[in-house]
């Protein structure tokens, strides 16, 4: 055996002895070189990377090492840094005339790099064999902070804060520091809604490193799934580019077991000169090409469509409803589902939807209001056992969605859409550490006079939020009333009592069964986290003709913890 083994020999220049026609330059080929002792080099004529047992380092691109001497490089890990995958072998699993597919094997599964000869970057995917039950599973780059000083997501762009700023600040909670001027530094500022991403990554004047994930069916969770995307590593200063392919950063308890063969990706890891417009162009190209015809995987290629029309039981079309194709007959919320493949869409004005390129299988179809003309709808729609067959469209025709009688509504504050949108300070950015602390302790909302912008996106401070409403009569037909305190998120540590005309009828406080803490308000989420619709029976006798009130009285508080409001509704039943 030689010092190293060249798995794919670089093509030799094609020389012709005949008359010098067009001089053809040697086309640089993609390669895998085995250096022995669990060290390999992969790449092509444009870039290459040295892969060790766990970490991919020495990312050579545009004449420099873009990981550098101090950053960690590329790796795959689950459930935090304790479990970085360890590669036991590497091989070219497949190849074509201008590409190779390099497979790195770990006991949990295989990580692939599909390297085209002329591509700055590579397509990557992971095939599960034996991952444990997990919440977090990610691939990532920890890169040179001089080459990549800036971060970019669809909602945030700019310099990553310098490591020196962290050193000068005081740690106040999980990855969050307070600076001398009172402002905060936190990696969670760089979170975003994963299913809204186009291209994101880290970049500088010379180079950019991007993730472009056109298909998003391998992610867990629904439309409102948020994740950390890029950040400054607070211990080492690395520029971090995350690919959270299964994540729980804003959820309560998403934890899944995966079947042997579950595949994440392929997505594109893309290198360029740092240009965002070029990365955007590449996103458009990849989005058009998805699902990738070059990916010769039977299950991946086996896809169909689902269409239907959602009509509310009061005759209205479910205009703009959020539509989710997920697990069939599941006890989990749409946010918590994550073992398989998931698709999201929105219905049109007529309540019609079509979801294409769905992997064949049996799904549950879920829908809920997303504001607009159905912002009053407190119920969700579910239909199980929806079968998607290869190259066929499953026409579900008209789907009847049972809603409560609108004429029985006493009041509603805010759209029932699983988010805090519309309330004061829910935006413009959906993330800001500590914004919830600025919400008032006491607030009075007068039905008929106040508007949703007088209510705040989140509640944490001691005091009472009072809803005043008048009743002209108590309907004979009503047996009781029902109060919905619909929460867009909830982080335990703050408690409130719910009172109707000074009588306690319920509470908002952590509960192992009914209200499990999610990691949203304290990580600066201001629009969504994990949605929970709490419902309370209100005795008819508690309500009276004339002025009435509902109080949400915070009796215990923990800094930055509390809940995000979706909607408050009272109706007769
Ligand atoms: C093999 O790699 C290990 C760990 O990186 C190192 O300690 C050892 O010296 C290497 N052995 C050889 C023969 O290069
Ligand atoms: C990796 O790239 C560097 C810089 O372009 C080059 O010098 C080196 O030979 C490449 N390594 C391999 C194995 O091709
Ligand atoms: C980059 O990383 C180095 C090495 O850890 C660190 O000393 C430096 O402060 C970091 N730079 C920035 C801008 O954070
Ligand atoms: C995953 O599998 C383990 C072992 O088979 C089982 O105990 C656990 O309940 C499963 N978890 C989930 C979330 O399905
Ligand atoms: C809220 O109102 C109560 C009772 O009027 C008062 O004691 C408390 O100081 C108020 N809290 C704030 C934060 O204004
Ligand atoms: C809060 O409400 C839940 C659900 O109704 C109930 O089980 C629990 O006992 C209540 N806790 C308190 C402290 O009132």
Automatic annotation (TrEMBL):
Keywords (A to Z) from UniProt: Carbohydrate metabolism, Lyase, Polysaccharide degradation, Secreted, Signal
E.C. number(s) listed in UniProt: 4.2.2.23
GO molecular function, one term: carbohydrate binding
Name under which the protein is recorded: rhamnogalacturonan endolyase
Alphabetical list of InterPro entries matching this protein: Carb-bd-like_fold, Gal_mutarotase_sf_dom, Galactose-bd-like_sf, GH-type_carb-bd, Polysacch_Lyase_4, RG-lyase_II, RG-lyase_III
BP terms from Gene Ontology: polysaccharide catabolic process
Enzyme class label: lyase
CDD domains: RGL4_C (cd10317), RGL4_M (cd10316), RGL4_N (cd10320)
Subcellular location: Secreted
Protein source organism: Bimuria novae-zelandiae CBS 107.79
Main location (coarse class): secreted
Family: Belongs to the polysaccharide lyase 4 family.
Catalytic activity: Endotype eliminative cleavage of L-alpha-rhamnopyranosyl-(1->4)-alpha-D-galactopyranosyluronic acid bonds of rhamnogalacturonan I domains in ramified hairy regions of pectin leaving L-rhamnopyranose at the reducing end and 4-deoxy-4,5-unsaturated D-galactopyranosyluronic acid at the non-reducing end
GO cellular component: extracellular region
PANTHER family assigned to the protein according to its UniProt record, in alphabetical order: RHAMNOGALACTURONAN ENDOLYASE, RHAMNOGALACTURONATE LYASE FAMILY PROTEIN
Residue ranges of every copy of the Rhamnogalacturonan lyase domain listed in the record: 315-395, 409-570
Record's signal peptide: 1-18
